[in-house]
Amino acid sequence: MFKEILEEIKKYNRILIHGHIRPDGDCYGSQFGLKAIIKQNFPEKDMKRYFAFFTVALAALVMFVGCAETQPTKPVYMWVDCEANFERMSYPDSIAFYVDKMKEIGVTDIVVDVKSIMGETLYDSKYAPYMGEFEGTVRERSYDMMRHFIDLGHAAGMRVHGSLNIFAGGHNFFNRGIIYNDHPEWQSIVYKSNGELVPISQIKTNYNGMLNPSNPEVREYQKNILVEFAERYKDADGIIFDRLRYDNITSDFSPLSREQFEAWSGIKLENYPEDVLTWADEKNWKPGKYFKEWVEWRATIIKTFVEEAHEAIHAANPNILVGDYTGAWYPTYYQLGVNWASTQYDPSERYPDWASENYHKTGYAELLDIYMTGLYYTLVTKDEVDAAQGRVIGERGESGMDPNDLTYCYSVEGGAELAQGITCGVVPVVGSLYVEQYKKKDAEGNEVDDPEQFGKAVAQVMKSCEGGLMIFDLVHIINHNWWDVLEENMKVVE
To answer: How many CB atoms lie within 10 A of CB 271?
Structure first.
């Protein structure tokens, strides 16, 4: 057996060491021990440690580690949003209760939101303001929610990750955040349909008070916080980026962005912002003559940040996993300045209206250990898409959807298929579901919960996504009491 394992190791450059769904101390120890042994004898190998159960050529290693379970499964991540769960998670006994509840139904990973969209941290940071109050609930600065989650989660045999909103700096509905206090100069400048360029804090129809990702001060500030987290929580299993993006295609149009684009491209923008894009009417924009160059530059801004952050995080904590959470709607996601694809995927032929020949170089999937894609669609299967072709397309309004398009990628099954194709197998794709989305109309036309469709979506993700399932958010599972629905369907793996 050992000789066979040795020969398998020699065949492959990337070695994935697996553990079981609820890893205990023995599982962790055997994983780290095996990694050390292989690294010592084969220093050229790319070593990664996962609890994911997807197909790899080194299945024999699982037996060697001794951590396999008979029940076929994949990782299940539960997201804990900091604002929606602020009061609930302000007490250690409440955290303990929900950790036990999650373990009971088979959740393997917890993602704890520790830096809000307001730019405030839920631990005592030396860089960011402390989120010590929200909607009347007050926390002492000494209260360390993340520490409680790590200790309790690890004791239960679960992985615990911290989520940090990267380029978010304010909540426009509350007029709160660093763009309202410490750094108003960091906020994005929005190009309105009337031609005005205004700070994003003035756009009260948009709750996201986003920062300008191209601002060097913003980038350094965010990297400092990421490194701080990695150093503070050495035993955290991962860091998940959220809102690692621009707000939309309408931002950022600051003088700084213009200056940086011109320096990067060598193009002089004589008419700004019209050379980039123009407004046809109040709702519709159209590309300017340098639109594709602008799109590529923005994606370059985001990728270089991922490169820099990845290096800095691993310098501080080599064992921590680095992940990212984005929407799955790739055909329109370029509008956010993000290319979450592999560099191997070239979108220029399929999407020539916005993708340049060099756009594929901005892909950053290779830099991730975990990639979570938001499959925010009410239709679950491609068969449902076929059946819906006769519907009024405007009835569907999910995030990122082209209102004139009803294709397979705007379903859970099709979106998962697209995401895995675009990432080219370089990172496990975790299919993410927005629980609150699963509603239907009753006989009287009233909107009611649809646990059956939610369960179907859960099962589809577990079937389709090699990296498993992420549920957004814990609060919705609690409010709808869909624990049983989740547990029953997340075990369906074909």
So the answer is: 11
